[in-house]
Design brief:
418 residues, single chain, 9-stranded mixed beta sheet, 2 domains, Alpha-Beta Plaits, alpha+beta, Aminopeptidase
C-alpha cells in the first residue's frame, strides 16, 4: 500500500532547502547559449544542428548525475533513475527545441527542473519508490508537420504520412530527419521504455495571469480544446472609384461584423477566439473586395461551452451573409485531479501560492495523456511574453517551479501504488 506519510513536512523542507536553485539558473544560461543569435533570439528548431547539440548537452548532464541515459529513435533524450520497488515509472520533463526567434525558458525550464530534482534526490540519498524517467522530448514546437513529434512517437502515435508535410527549413519533415540520420520506420515503431504511472511537466505559463495575480505556481486544469473554421463571404468586385456606396456588395464590409462577433462570443463564454488570417480578393486598392476568407479559431477547456460558442458563430456568419466551414479540431485534455491535488499539497507545504488555470497552448503532456495521467506546473512569464527573445521568467520563479516539481514528485511517489 502507498505510504501517504512517506514525506512529512519536515523532510520535505529539508529536501527543498537542498534544492540547488543556483545550479538550475546556471544550467538555463548554459543551455540558452546553444543556438542563441544576438538580435534574433533562440534558433534551436527541431532536428537542427543547434537542437541536436543542445540534446547532447542534456544527455551529458543526465549521465553526470549517474543516470542511465540515451537517445530514442525519435531523438527524445531519456534518463532513468531506478526506484526501490517494481512499479511503473514516474516521468517528468518537457522539451528543449525552440521556435525561430524564441526565448531560453520555453520547455527548457521543465527539462532542467527535472534534472535539478534528480540532483537533490541524489545529494540527499533519497530513492523514490517508483523508477523515474526524465525526458527531453524532441520537436515539441510546431516546426515540423508532425509536431509534437517526439512525444507523439513516444506514445506510438506517429505515422509516416504525418512526416510528409513541410518542416521549418522548407523540406519535408521526412527529408529533414533523413539528413540528420533518423530512421523514420524506427520512429514510427517507437514505444516507452517502461510503463508510466504518471507524467508531470513544468513549463512557463506563456501568459500573464500568474504574474498579474502575484502567484508563484499555476496548477494546470487541462490543455484547451481547439476548433478552427473557415469563413467565406462572397460579394461583388467592382470599381472603387465609380461604384456608389449604396450599390456596393463589399465582401470585407460583410466580414467585418463577423470578426467582431468572434471576439464578442469568446468574451461572453470565457474562452479565447481569434481571426488570425484574412484573404481579400482581388486585394487591390482600387477594387471593391469581391471575396473574403477568414481563418477562425476558438479555444477552451469545456466542450459544452465550445459547442455554444460554435452555434453563435454559425448563426453570425449566416446573418452577415457568409458561411462558416469546419476545419481542424482537437479535444480538451483534462489534467488528473489526484495529481493536481498532489501539486497543491506540495506547494502548500512549501508556502507557495497556487492558482488553477487552463493551458491555452499545447504541450507534450497532451500526448502523454493517451498513456498515463498527467499534470502540469506553470511558472510566471513576465508580461506574458513567450516565443520571443524577450521571454523572461524571474530567477526566483524558476527556482520555485523546480521546488514545486520536487514536492509534487514526492507526493505522487507516495500516493500512487501502481
Amino acid at each position: 500500500m502507498p505510504d501517504l506519510n512517506a514525506y512529512p513536512p519536515e523532510k520535505l523542507h529539508t529536501l527543498a532547502a537542498a534544492f540547488d536553485g543556483e545550479q538550475l539558473l546556471a544550467d538555463l544560461d548554459t543551455l540558452g547559449a546553444i543556438g542563441w543569435k544576438p538580435g534574433a533570439g533562440l534558433q534551436r528548431m527541431a532536428y537542427s544542428d543547434a537542437d541536436l547539440e543542445a540534446r547532447r548537452w542534456v544527455l551529458a548532464q543526465m549521465q553526470a548525475l549517474g543516470m542511465q541515459a540515451w537517445f530514442d529513435p525519435a531523438g527524445n533524450v531519456i534518463a532513468l533513475l531506478l526506484g526501490r520497488e517494481e512499479l511503473p515509472a514516474l516521468a517528468i520533463g518537457s522539451h528543449t527545441d525552440s521556435v525561430p526567434g524564441g526565448g531560453k525558458f520555453d520547455g527548457a525550464l521543465g527539462v532542467l527542473a527535472g534534472l535539478a530534482c534528480v540532483r537533490t534526490l541524489r545529494s540527499q540519498g533519497v530513492q523514490l519508490r517508483h523508477p523515474l524517467l526524465v525526458i527531453d522530448f524532441a520537436a515539441e514546437e510546431a516546426t515540423t508537420s508532425a509536431s509534437p513529434t517526439g512525444s507523439l512517437s513516444f506514445i506510438g502515435g506517429l505515422t509516416e504520412a504525418l512526416l510528409d508535410g513541410p518542416a521549418w527549413d522548407g523540406r519535408s519533415t521526412a527529408a529533414l530527419l533523413a539528413s540528420q540520420g533518423f530512421d523514420v520506420a524506427a520512429m514510427v515503431a517507437n514505444r516507452p521504455p517502461l510503463s508510466i504511472a504518471a507524467f508531470l511537466e513544468v513549463h512557463i505559463e506563456q501568459g500573464e495571469r500568474l504574474a498579474a495575480a502575484g502567484v508563484s505556481i499555476g496548477v494546470v486544469e487541462g490543455i484547451v480544446g481547439i476548433r478552427r473554421y473557415y469563413a467565406h463571404f462572397e460579394g461583388q468586385a467592382n470599381h472603387a472609384g465609380t461604384t456608389e456606396m449604396a450599390r456596393r456588395r463589399d465582401a470585407l464590409v460583410m466580414a467585418a461584423p463577423f470578426i467582431l462577433a468572434v471576439r464578442e462570443a469568446a468574451v461572453a463564454h470565457g474562452i479565447v477566439g481569434t481571426v488570425g488570417r484574412i484573404e481579400v480578393h482581388p486585394n487591390a486598392p482600387n477594387v471593391i473586395p469581391g471575396r473574403v476568407m477568414l481563418d477562425v479559431e476558438i479555444r477552451g477547456l469545456d466542450e459544452a461551452v465550445l459547442d455554444r460558442a460554435e452555434e453563435i458563430l454559425l448563426a453570425e456568419a449566416a446573418r452577415c451573409g457568409g458561411t462558416l466551414h469546419f476545419g481542424h479540431r482537437k479535444e480538451p485534455v483534462p489534467a488528473d485531479p489526484r495529481l493536481m491535488a498532489a501539486i497543491e499539497r506540495g506547494c502548500e507545504a512549501l508556502g507557495l501560492r497556487t492558482l488553477r488555470m487552463p493551458s491555452g497552448a499545447g504541450h507534450d503532456a497532451m500526448n502523454l495523456a493517451a498513456i498515463c495521467p498527467y499534470a502540469m506546473i506553470f511558472a510566471p512569464s513576465e508580461q506574458g511574453i513567450s516565443h520571443a527573445p524577450e521571454e523572461w521568467t524571474q530567477p526566483h520563479d524558476c527556482i520555485n517551479a523546480g521546488r514545486a516539481l520536487l514536492a509534487a514528485l514526492l507526493e505522487v511517489d507516495a500516493l500512487l501504488d501502481v
